[in-house]
């Protein structure tokens, strides 16, 4: 594998784990801003998707994923298995997105 492979499964078909490097992780805390909050409040009145928050959380997931992948590369891994996202509130206008999984070295069977 030339690039880092990330999967949510506990293995990669056609590959075997030859070394476990440890927990790979990456996170980000994103804060809303007043303009986004005002638009979200208006959308909340009429219902429906709050696209401003959807976009913010998608960006946060991508940042957390990239940071986790960099952490895995720093450990010498060529794959991350069992990858998961976790989110939590941090204060009233902030959310943390955390990506984690097991950094491993795999090779073809």
Please, could you describe this protein's structure?
With 109 residues, the protein is an alpha+beta fold. The protein has a single domain, classed as Hypothetical protein apc22750. Chain B (Translation Initiation Factor IF3, 2-Layer Sandwich), CATH 3.30.110.70. Helices cover 34% and strands 41% of the residues. It is built from two helices and four strands. Strands 1-3-4-2 form a four-stranded mixed β-sheet. Strand 3 and strand 4 form a beta hairpin. The two termini are 12 Å apart. The model has no long low-confidence stretch (mean pLDDT 89).
Topology of helices and strands:
Elements: E1 5-6, E2 15-31, H1 34-46, H2 51-74, E3 79-89, E4 94-108
CATH topology: Translation Initiation Factor IF3
Number of strands: 4
The CATH class is Alpha Beta
Question: What's the CATH superfamily, by name?
Answer: Hypothetical protein apc22750. Chain B
Poorly predicted segments: none
Gross morphology:
elongated
Instruction: Classify the beta-strand content into a percent band.
Output: 35-45%
Helix content: 25-40%
**Helix count?**
2
Reported CATH architecture: 2-Layer Sandwich
Category by helix and strand content: alpha+beta
Write down the domain tally. Answer: 1
| Gap from first CA to last CA | 12 Å
């Amino acid at each position: 594998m030339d690039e880092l492979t990330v999967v949510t499964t506990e293995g990669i078909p056609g590959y075997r784990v030859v070394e476990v490097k440890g927990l790979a992780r990456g996170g980000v805390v994103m804060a809303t801003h007043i303009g986004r909050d005002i638009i979200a409040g208006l959308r909340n009145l009429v219902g429906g998707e709050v696209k401003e928050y959807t976009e913010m959380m998608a960006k946060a997931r991508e940042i957390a994923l990239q940071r986790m992948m960099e952490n895995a590369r720093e450990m010498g891994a060529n794959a991350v298995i069992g990858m998961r996202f976790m989110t939590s509130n941090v204060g009233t206008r902030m959310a943390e997105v955390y990506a984690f999984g097991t950094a491993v070295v795999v090779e073809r069977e």
